Amino acid sequence: MKLSILDQAPISSNQTAKEALGESMKLAQAGETLGYIRYWIAEHHDLPGLACSAPEVMLSYIGANTNNIRIGSGAVLLPYYKPYKVAEVYHMLATLFPNRIDVGIGRAPGGSAEATNALSDNFLQQVWSMPDLVKDLLHFLDNSLPENHKYSKVTASPLPEVSPVPWILGTSKKSAILAAQNGLPYAFGQFMSDKDGASIIQTYKDSFTPRKQGDRPKVILTVSAICAETNDRAEEIALSPLIWSLLKEKGEGHHGIPSIQEAKEYVLNETEKNTLQKMKQNMIIGNPHVVKERLNELQILYQADEIMIVTITHSPEDRIHSYQLIAKESL
Question: Which superkingdom, per the lineage (predicted)?
Fold first, then answer.
């Protein structure tokens, strides 16, 4: 089974943002040692408890402290940016870290409405223009702008020997079709979707048009998983991010992921108990055997080429240990 890591750079209640970002680097190093194929870090804006607003900065840091693991954005929120600038940034990274760079492309705001307005005066308009933005980005990444294009004489320097690999990330048929029409690999965020992911992925495969000779549909399925030696311990560790999610829905949780003890002390009302159970249904929580079996089931159901795992815990040690246990059982 091919496994990868998605990191949202979570900040625990006993951490600073600097400490959380340091733990992200340690996670990438651990992933490389354990045999994970790639490490992606997400982009978020003004969301309490999440430390990474600029993946390209973290990728420079992580690339310099790792050797082989593929690294990338999960995702660049393209409506905020000019495709030319994105191509420049990721060409720079691909020049520094040859044949290791992925460019995950997304359209979500990644933050509050206020943060969106602070970042862009026309975000919604740019979301509607997403197909054109993607096409322009691909031309810049390939250095293949048509002669009649208004930027045909512009190069996104420096040009790396091996171009970064673009991916479309999403949770809808719209993103799946966008990936298929452009002949791009597709990463489906199962961990943040309640839609029929298998149908969406099949739509992607059925609609796929090769971008280059030999291209074929390629799918990453992104899931949330927490693994420990026993099911009980995994459930205990998972309580922290689950309670944090409930707090965020109430407009709280500004102090980051609560400790296990803090999570246990939180008194759930009936509505919250039901919400927590629904959230758990979209996670994999258990011992290594349980997690492996569930990953295998999802891979077969979604016909995924690769599983990308996002794990949020209060303790950085619990997070890395979870990835270690999964790797030992499944890689």
Answer: Bacteria
